[in-house]
Design a protein that fits this description.
The protein is of the alpha+beta class and 209 residues long. It is built from 4 helices and 10 strands. The strands form 3 sheets. A 6-stranded mixed β-sheet has the order 3-4-6-5-10-7.
């Protein structure tokens, strides 16, 4: 003959199984309601993209403020139509740095802040033009960016009396506009009535290798 305690024990056991079943059922419906697609960017990848952008943008801002960026893009050989020390790539009537960093100090800084951290990068230079279009040239090319690449930009103002530079950064005593008024740079002179020569937008595209 069952006692009252036996009945209570069976009841508690049944309640336990029922509660466990309800929890499992709730978890089942919760998982069913979550849609996961292979094309969706994960939170982790978005965080990496954000970190890469902030890093690239901070580097550009710092390089622009201390003059390193302007010095680097002025390392131009007007006769050879190439960036100094860039025998690798040839595109759009100008030679550029293909698979290699530009000369120091810019190259060393980008090596330390990007490449050494497993981040590849490309740099393009876009000139302002009087017809409101941009003339874009490759400056550094480390390959095809991934689908998670980010791009940061920084504008550099060039003046007619700015001087071109050698690979080591020394001045050439060649101004962007020569004595005859002819441009010596790959960007055209957009304002012949003022000291302004052109405004170059430096675009750096960075991605995880």
């Amino acid at each position: 003959m069952k006692t009252i305690d036996d009945n209570k024990g069976q009841l508690h056991t049944l309640e336990g199984f029922t509660a466990a079943f309800m929890i499992l059922l709730a978890m089942f419906f919760a998982f069913q309601s979550v849609s996961i697609t292979p094309t969706s960017s994960s939170t982790a990848s978005q965080e990496v993209e954000t970190q890469n952008y902030v890093l690239a943008d901070d580097v550009l801002v710092a390089l622009a403020e201390n003059g390193t960026l302007k010095e680097a893009i002025l390392k131009w050989d007007a006769d050879g139509r190439e960036f100094e020390g860039s025998p690798s790539g040839d595109h759009n009537d100008a030679r550029y740095y293909l698979g290699t960093s530009p000369p120091e100090p810019l190259g060393d800084i980008l090596q330390e802040t990007l490449l050494d951290r497993g981040i590849a990068y490309n740099i393009d230079l876009a000139c302002d033009r009087t017809d409101d279009n941009s003339r874009v040239r490759e400056f550094v090319d480390f390959g095809e960016p991934s689908k998670h690449a980010v791009t940061a930009t920084q504008r550099v103002i060039l003046y007619e009396d700015d001087e071109l530079r050698e690979e080591d950064g020394s001045l050439k005593d060649e101004r962007l506009v020569d004595e005859d008024g002819s441009p010596q740079y790959f960007c055209e002179n957009v304002s012949e009535d003022s000291d302004l020569y052109n405004v170059v937008e430096v675009r750096i595209t960075a991605w995880r290798m």
